[in-house]
Write a structure and sequence with these properties.
Layout: H1 5-19, H2 25-37, H3 39-57, H4 62-99, H5 105-134
Helix pairs in contact: 1-2, 1-3, 2-3
InterPro entries: Znf_put
Protein name: Putative zinc-finger domain-containing protein
Pfam families: zf-HC2 (PF13490)
Length: 143
Amino acid sequence: MTQQEQPCQNIEPLISGALDNELTQQQRQQLHLHLASCEACANLYRELAEQRGAVKLGVQTNDVLNESQSTRIWNAIGWSLLVLGLIPLVIYAIYQFSQDTSIPWWIKLTIGTTVLGLILLFINVLRQRMQAAKSDPYKKVNL
C-alpha cells in the first residue's frame, strides 16, 4: 500500500460524514485540504454528492413516470368497476336481510351494528392511510 492510498482510506469516512453534514470544523478543513490535493477523492466526493442529490430530489426516468401513471389509471378503473359492481349487490343483500321475517329483530340489530362498526373502522383506517401517504417522505425512493 502506497503512502497516497493510506490517507485516502482515512478520508473516505470524512467524505460520507461531510455529505451527511456530521463533521466538526476541524474534520471539514482536513477534508477540504485533502480534496484540493487529491483528484481521486475529489471525484469520489462529487460522484457521491450527485447521487445523494438525485435520491433527495427523487429523480425518475421517463419509463418509471409513464409506468406509474398507467398503473394509477388502471388501478382507478379497477377500483371503480369493483365499487360499481358491489353497490347493487350490497343494496340487494341489505333489502333481503331486512325483509326476512325468520330472523329475530335483535339478531338483525346485532349483525347490523357489527357490520356498521366494521365499515366505520375501515373508513377510518383508509382515511389515515391516505393522510399518511400525502406526507410520506419515502414515496419517491426507488428500491
